[in-house]
Amino acid sequence: MLRYTLLFFLCFTMVHASLLSQENPLKIGVAGLTHTHVHWILGREDIGDIEIVGIAEPNRDLAQRYSEQHGFSMDLVYDSLEEMLAATQPEAVTAFGTIYDHLGVVQTCAPKGIHVMVEKPLAVSMDHAKKMKALAEKHNIHLLTNYETTWYPTNHKAKAILDEGKIGEVRKVIVRDGHKGPAKLGINQEFLDWLLDPKDNGGGAITDFGCYGANLMTWLLQGKRPNTVTAVTQQLQAENNPKVDDDATILLTYDTAQAIIEASWNWPIGRKDMEIYGLTGAVYADNRNQFRIRIAEGYDGFSEEKMELPERESPLNDPFSLLAAVVQGKLQLAPYDLSSLENNMIVMEILDAARESARKGKTITLKK
């Protein structure tokens, strides 16, 4: 009897310990504070799935401002990423510095087995992206990319309808992203300094907002690479954006479809929307929650259904919940998932080709 009692106790203890380990929050370090998307994680409701254990930011004034705004202790702030990692031992790091710095974050974290999530886009260039991919694979870490539109229920509804064949095979996709421009929005100087720098950001609107459409199209077409990339850029606010483009149109062609990506810092009203046209109908992801589907009737007639979509269930509604779920083995990303490395390598290939196309004034054919 005693033997069975001890056996039961040992089994219960092991199961209980396993459950506790699964419930432990993911320890996250924050690399940089100059990207204002950092407010996403600093101002996030504490739901117990992550814990910020350290912040690497040499600008003490900036860190102090955000400390007062969000209520974190300045004891969490370190002058360098190396110092923060050594002192806090995070399991993952979220990068909120310049896009150019993404490579350095991976170079520092990957050899230590620390997983990384960067803000979009993955890198400033395909060259940087290849180095990051090699490091992630060599050291077996997850390397995710976060886009705001990944969490839009409307985009996921659009893909579900497309996959179900409700509007027929896709023929044209139009993705529009942007706002009136960083300077006009009055963003803080720490962010503005590098967002308008072609080295640190990789470009202007073509990088900042062109990546969204490339990411979505790669996902919709399940990893297909475009055959050609054609891009036109303009600088319509030279006084505000002297070193970079502020308006870009990217045209992608595939065997049986075409994508038009309109990325701009000249929209009078901020927007992130997508239209998908199939053989028998169309869907409109008008914003995060408002969605329409039209089924063709005759020449120009259609029936239309409008929807107001609820937020997605956790962990599919938040980048840091997703990061925790992936790192802790609770969730495996689908092939060419919006956050995945394989998707975002294609995004970088498209962005590099788009910048080359705009610079040379010609269509770029991607190598097979």
TrEMBL record:
Domain of life of the organism encoding this protein: Bacteria
Gene3D superfamilies per record: Dihydrodipicolinate Reductase, domain 2, NAD(P)-binding Rossmann-like Domain
A molecular function (GO) term: nucleotide binding
Sequence ranges assigned to domain GFO/IDH/MocA-like oxidoreductase in this UniProt record: 157-283
Pfam families recorded: GFO_IDH_MocA (PF01408), GFO_IDH_MocA_C3 (PF22725)
Domain (Gfo/Idh/MocA-like oxidoreductase N-terminal) ranges: 28-144
Keywords: Signal
Signal sequence range: 1-17
Name of this chain's protein: Gfo/Idh/MocA family oxidoreductase
Source organism (scientific name): Flagellimonas allohymeniacidonis
